Backbone:
């Protein structure tokens, strides 16, 4: 990248390092940091929406809907999450392809399960075999986001379900005695008040979500873990201008530090948000704040 | 080939006993059940050993974080932050490559690069940090009256810790510690996806489940089998820890006992 990088072999250590860390491939690892941030930015609201749907359907008086919500929340308990990640990526992919298959090739007579293969007609493939590379990458990323949203939606549903039950019940009864319908009570009384109760759980979930991002690697996205393994491996002078030994340890140390910093910053920010929200609340933390002031 | 033969061939495949080659075709339900179940041996091995050894370090870390000595306190707090603040997945990778680069220095480090020891050490440190935080929280909430009563009986130092503080801490921490145990068992599934090689295809339950999913392109059979095994394991952990909880609470009247309350599953 720099002008003095023409002949890396002749450079001294510091300049060599500066050139090494700005090669095209290193730019890829820096952009993959943004992939992680993008994933967080998309997943967090989606998972929250899924969680909200799950929690409100678990509260529903219509039995099948309530069973569905409760099952959605309960099914994540007792099974390792990583299994969900591995499962959903294949399952969702096959589901989409099967739906497109049914729509686009109605006169296809063969079974889609042929022995050990999953076969759909060519125009139903997702993405199409002849589409460019970036479409494949984006599709893989979207599948990953959806998987994250489904799994974390269940966690969020659990937190929100708990928060909805933590809202003082006499508030709801008061609203009903004013003649509000169930829908009005839900939207005007319950939902605005539940967030204070949900915030500790949700901020915990955010921390967990940060720590789950390296699992993107397992879903086949070229994320920071992928690039750290790729770039850290020993390189000989035949294939690169920057030969070095096995540096994967240092790359993963850098990732470790990155995640620790990210967690620390989130902790500080969420602490501030919590302090803002508890201000003036009739809770223990709110009382403590009032006394301190 | 009957199912019993499959069980005899593959039941202990994950620890290298029985048939060497994994099935190449057919992939019957029986084969999937047997191999994934055989992989569970590794999950149980990692979970049990890490939990048992981590328990002691966790107690030490909790005491360190609560101690008056600033060096001990800072060191314990940093240890907890280091392992709780970063993803376990990255910890596994880092540890594996660390051991790999230590290998040329001395042959002592040879076993560390294989999963049975290297991954176990990471899991041990990780669970020690998580449970250390739980124990620290419980230590902070030991009722003052209990300590005062111990003082009144003339207990101090080690005997007060052994007879009053420690049992009360355990009692208060136990429900949360049960969750921690469950998550630890779930976390053991990460081992073979994080650098540590599965030597001669001897892997854990998830390793075999994803093997079948890759071979058959059908995730709907191996993963539910895996889920079935893990739900079974979780139920075993809950009942075992429930028994211990009952023993820890046996001196209390019924309504004062700490209830086992299970929280949801969380990745680390």
Residues:
């Amino acid at each position: 990248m720099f002008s003095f990088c023409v002949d890396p072999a002749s450079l001294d250590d510091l300049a060599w390092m500066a050139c090494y860390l700005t090669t095209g491939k290193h730019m890829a690892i820096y952009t993959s940091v943004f992939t992680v941030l993008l994933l967080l930015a998309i997943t967090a609201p989606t998972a929250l929406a899924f969680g909200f749907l799950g929690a409100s359907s678990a509260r529903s008086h219509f039995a099948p809907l309530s069973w569905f919500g409760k099952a959605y929340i309960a099914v994540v308990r007792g099974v390792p999450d990583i299994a969900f990640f591995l499962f959903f990526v294949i399952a969702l992919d096959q589901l989409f392809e099967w739906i497109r298959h049914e729509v686009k090739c109605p006169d296809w007579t063969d079974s889609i399960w042929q022995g050990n293969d999953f076969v759909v007609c060519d125009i139903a493939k997702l993405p199409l075999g002849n589409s460019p590379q970036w479409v494949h990458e984006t599709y893989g990323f979207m599948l990953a986001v959806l998987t994250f949203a489904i799994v974390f939606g269940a966690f969020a549903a659990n937190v929100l379900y708990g928060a909805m039950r933590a809202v003082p019940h006499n508030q709801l009864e008061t609203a009903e005695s004013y003649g509000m319908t169930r829908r009005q009570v839900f939207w005007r009384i319950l939902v605005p008040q539940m967030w204070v109760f949900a915030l500790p759980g949700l901020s915990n979930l955010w921390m967990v979500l940060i720590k789950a991002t390296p699992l993107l690697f397992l879903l086949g996205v070229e994320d920071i873990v992928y690039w750290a393994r790729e770039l850290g491996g020993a390189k000989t002078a035949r294939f690169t201008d920057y030969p070095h030994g096995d540096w994967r340890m240092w790359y993963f140390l850098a990732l470790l530090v990155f995640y620790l910093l990210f967690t620390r910053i989130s902790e500080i920010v969420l602490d501030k948000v919590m302090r803002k929200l508890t201000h003036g609340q009739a809770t223990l933390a709110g009382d403590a704040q009032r006394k301190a002031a | 080939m009957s199912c019993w033969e499959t069980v005899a061939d593959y039941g202990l495949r994950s620890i290298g006993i029985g048939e060497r080659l994994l099935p190449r075709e057919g992939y019957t339900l029986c084969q999937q059940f047997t191999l994934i179940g055989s992989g569970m041996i590794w999950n149980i091995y990692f979970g049990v050993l890490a939990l048992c050894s981590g328990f002691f370090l966790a107690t030490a870390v909790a005491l360190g974080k609560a101690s008056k000595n600033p060096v001990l306190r800072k060191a314990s707090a940093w240890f907890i932050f280091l392992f709780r603040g970063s993803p376990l997945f990255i910890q596994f990778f880092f540890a594996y490559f660390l051991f790999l680069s230590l290998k040329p220095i001395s042959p002592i480090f040879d076993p560390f690069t294989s999963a049975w020891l290297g991954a176990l050490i990471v899991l041990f440190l990780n669970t020690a940090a998580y449970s250390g935080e739980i124990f620290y929280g419980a230590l902070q909430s030991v009722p003052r009256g209990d300590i005062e009563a111990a003082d009144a009986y003339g207990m101090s130092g080690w005997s007060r810790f052994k007879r009053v503080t420690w049992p009360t801490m355990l009692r208060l921490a136990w429900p949360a510690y049960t969750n921690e145990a469950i998550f630890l068992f779930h976390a053991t599934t990460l081992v073979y996806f994080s650098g540590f090689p599965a030597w001669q295809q001897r892997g854990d339950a998830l390793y075999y489940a994803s093997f079948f999913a890759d071979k058959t392109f059908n995730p709907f059979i191996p993963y539910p089998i895996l889920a079935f095994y893990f739900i079974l394991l979780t139920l075993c952990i809950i009942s075992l820890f429930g028994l211990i909880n009952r023993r820890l609470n046996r001196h209390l009247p019924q309504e004062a006992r700490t209830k086992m309350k299970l929280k949801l599953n969380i990745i680390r």
Notes: The CA atoms of residues 34 and 128 of chain B lie 32 Å apart. Chain B has a mean pLDDT of 87.
